[in-house]
Model the fold of this input.
Amino acid sequence: MYVLHEGGVMDRKEVTWCRIIIVLVMGALIGWSVSVGNIVLLVVAFIVGPLALYLLRSRIEEVMEDERIHLIHEKASARTMQVFVVITASLGAILIALSRSGYADFSQSGFTLVYSACALLILHLIFRGYYRRKYGG
Amino acid sequence: MKTKLKVYRAMHDLRQEDLAREIGITRQTIIAIEKGKYNPSLELAFKIARYFEVTIEDIFVYDQSFRSIEGKGVG
Done:
């Protein structure tokens, strides 16, 4: 399906397609193993998938990541976290408020969302402190 | 920041892909730098300048009228 270049290296497009296929197969295997309750297959998928992705990196012919890609990841991660925390905390607060005005079923969901937002913020603060120390200041 | 990267690349008869490979970055980053959408780090600017055997100022010209990456976005 994928023609390897001389020396077994692949170009960007081939690597991208391979990555997509590996992730899809891994997702399908994990989903199926969870639905049938097969823990062995689940563990195998979790080991083989990342291993295949790692091995794929050694076949890359051209540079796939550089400082611009890292900057994009940083900005996207920061924005994702901001949006996720605001939405999750707001939704959690609404559900908790609803649970206290007659909809008791929403209580657990509300607290789960609020705690998730808190956990994410704490994790963010820990990493922020770590990187602040690492890069000085 | 104004850049003359495209001019230097043309002078050396290099494709974006070739330059990217030589410097160790992606072709998309070369495109972004040439379009003025991305300001390279000091390290990358040095790498590019050294590759063409010129100074950073020969390739990159700081211009305050140009909005930086922070205000303009990436890519």
Observations:
- The longest helix of chain B spans residues 42-51.
- Chain B has six helices and two strands.
- The beta strands of chain B are 2-3, 60-61.
- The interface with chain A takes residues 17, 20-21, 24-29, 32, 38, 40-41, 43-44, 69, 74-75 of chain B (CB under 8 Å).
